[in-house]
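Give me the fold.
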Amino acid sequence: MAVDLEASSGATDRSAGALPQLEPPVPSARHGLAWWRGKAGDPSGAVADFEELLADQVRLLDTFDPQRLATRHALAHWRGEAGEPGRAVALLTELLADQTGNLGPEHPDTLKTRHSLVQRRGEAGEPGRAVALLTELLADQTSILGPEHPHTRATRNALADWLSRAGPS
């Protein structure tokens, strides 16, 4: 008895030449491997891995797919860790505009990107601006997420750090 694999796999609706969809575990696993490559001390390698993953996601996923947005955030993070805070700021600025327009300004991912952007601005030589923006972000996170949310606490800690770095105003 012959088995029709296409019919049994639910692949009958694919048009000729269409790209196959990535199954969620595949990009997620690649994301994890790239992240841990950076954590293991190879931020430039992590950047290369995230750039490759993002190129595949651009071909296969919608512009505002959560995995694609997460990859863009991670790429900016590792650009910063690789000693390119200015490039990280540019990437995070683009990502923030997309998240704000698509997810809204109060979405937790948008707030997280704001935090990352402020951190990288400070590292790029703008500690006073980092303090001002973290103060605004802390007020927003406190009202949206609550004062004890982990992201709110992280912002409170970052603000204390940047206040000590910026010195007296």
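The first helix runs from residue 5 to 9.
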